[in-house]
Amino acid sequence: MDIRNLTLETEEISIRGRTLKIFLPAKLEEIFQGDPFLEVEKFPFWAKIWESSLVLADYVATIEPPKKILELRAGLGVPSLVAASIGHKVLATDYEELPLEFIKLSAKENNLLVETKILDWRNPNLSEKFDLIIGSEVVFRKSLFDPLLEIFKNYLEDEGEVILAHPSERKRVLIPFLYSAQKYFKVLTSIRKFKSKEETAEIILNRLLKIK
Known about the structure:
Methyltransf_16, 5 helices, Methyltransferase, alpha/beta, methyltransferase
């Protein structure tokens, strides 16, 4: 699918005094024609700016640059773009090309440098380690627990950390994942409140530190 054939819109976000313009699809039907209830795995959840990504971006904005950052399942790449805006070196990844095209467009619009790459967690084509590995709503299926943990173990610097953000509704799948992660990482958990015009969302923020 060619992004040039899609109807686009922009949304402005403000994180700790920095305002960025984010490109996203204006018409969902242009990128998905199926039944979202019958084809959940194919539904483009990435096509929206979710509260978890904003909470993650806000946290990353507090980390002094420069750090090498890997974002997993980046979607529209809000945390990556915010990180790049304060001087971090960022690689944004996803399992398909289209969301990465939106990240490239947003990076160009905001005069930012963000590298992008398609990444299959089961067969990661990464050649370097990172100071930070970040992800919002990346824990969603038990079958991906092991591939995700392998990425954390193999591509995180010894002094680095993993930072994850998930809505509290994901506790059912998140807690078993964190339990598995405790074999290799010290897990720190905090709760962040995100207020929007409609409601207040509760976001679970986790930091994973390598056990030495």
